[in-house]
Amino acid sequence: MDRLNQFARRLPTWSVYLAGFVPFLWIVWLTLTGGLGADPVKAIEWRLGELGLQFLLGGLVITPLRWVGLNLVRFRRAIGLLAFFYIAMHLSAWIILDMGLRWAEMANDLVKRWYIIIGMAGFAAMIPLAITSNNASVKRLGAVAWRRLHKLTYFAALAGAVHYVVLVKSWPPEPLLYLGAAILLLAARAWKAGARLMPAPAGSGGRPSASGGK
Fold first, then answer.
1. Which end of the chain is more exposed for a tag (fewer CB within 10 A), N or C?
2. DSSP 8-state class, residue 34
């Protein structure tokens, strides 16, 4: 674990952004070369949305990894911004490529397909997170308020996973695995928070846990 932490400390943050954009470039390449199958628009939407959900869950994994000794906290901002980018591209693909900016038709879709509203609510929750993902916002809001605001990530991840499960309708295992992962990660946080609030065992001197973490 020490070697992994040493490697992570040497790894520049920009390399995470660079690696995170590779899948997007691959989607662009497949689009230009006709490699997305018979329905390229749906393929673009699906790939972008799934990547956004993967980055969202990847950001949530960082805290449990820290509990077991692997510290990747310095990459959390990059992973979160990549999640926002892919989900914004997913929504843009639906609005522009799929719906062709037909606003009345989009409004009808929102009424008929409630899972779209859930997905949009998850994206809306990510907007203030993306805007405040900088050191200036941490100073302006204060660390406590900033951390409280960024708990919206939990809602965004759960909304994205539910959106994916309901979207596919046929209940294949992959969307259910994403939903299970989101629920498990949120449950682990709730358990950890509850454990910190529990009274210290007799003889411990009532000292709080030093485990930390968000």
1. N
2. T
